[in-house]
Amino acid sequence: MNARERLLNLFVDRSFRLGDFTLSSGRKSDFYIDCRTTTMHAEGQVLLGEVGLDAVEASGLSPDVVGGLTMGADPIAYAIAGESFRRGRPIHAFSVRKRAKRHGTGRQIEGCFESGARVVVVEDVITTGGSALQACEAVRAEQGTVLMILAAVDRQEGGRETIEQAGFKVESLFGVDEFRRVLREREGS
Prior knowledge:
Distance between the termini: 17 Å
Number of helices: 7
Shape: globular
Largest sheet: 6 strands, mixed
Strand content: 25-35%
Helix content: 40-55%
Order of helices and strands: HEEHHEHEEEHEHEH
Structural class: alpha/beta
Number of strands: 8
CATH topology of the domain at 44-175: Rossmann fold
CATH class of the domain at 44-175: Alpha Beta
CATH architecture of the domain at 44-175: 3-Layer(aba) Sandwich
């Protein structure tokens, strides 16, 4: 099993739940994805770094930094940054606060972000696209250039299209349809 397949199975085992759920938007759903139980898992971190960096490299883009809205994007950004260092081509990480600090430097973006940076914004789960767009706004406000949005999981409910309509390229490591396929295959065996 390659790293992508192993990460997919880890997401299905640790993060994907079927049932009756109310999402943060208030909308009902027959499934829930809590990426943090995979993205903060020791093996998940290693696999996510490898698979995430593979996706960034396959895009042909050369970002300076990778990051997104705290807290969902943080472990993804850190995993990719760590793997990029191991491969000898460092891409540093940053975090975007929901609001700028009211003390210290008063920054909304923390970490290795600098004005003018070329950025890959990461997201744990794309549902509506709002979190990714909020991170993009913060990056642009600090004179960064968003090269693309990379999501761990796309719920495939229109968020990707919303982000693309805002003018951003979007890639996702997995779509929820892949999670359902894995479960069907397991039931069939």
